[in-house]
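It is worth pausing here to work through a concrete case rather than discussing structure prediction in the abstract. The textbook approach is simple: state the sequence, then state the predicted structure, then interpret. We follow exactly that order.
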Amino acid sequence: MSYDELRQFADSWGLVLMGVSYLTFVGWHFLPRGRERSDEAARAIFEQEEADHG
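Step two, the predicted structure:
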């Protein structure tokens, strides 16, 4: 595969792949199970802090 072929692939299908990946990762958060995990992750640092002070 030459540089020109690789460049053409990256300019076309690479951009599509990155766009689909981005939408998948962002959309994953809005699924019901994804939202629960995101909320747990957001509160995790406070739970550790409360355990140290409590």
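Step three, interpretation. The chain has two helices and no strands. The radius of gyration is 20 Å.
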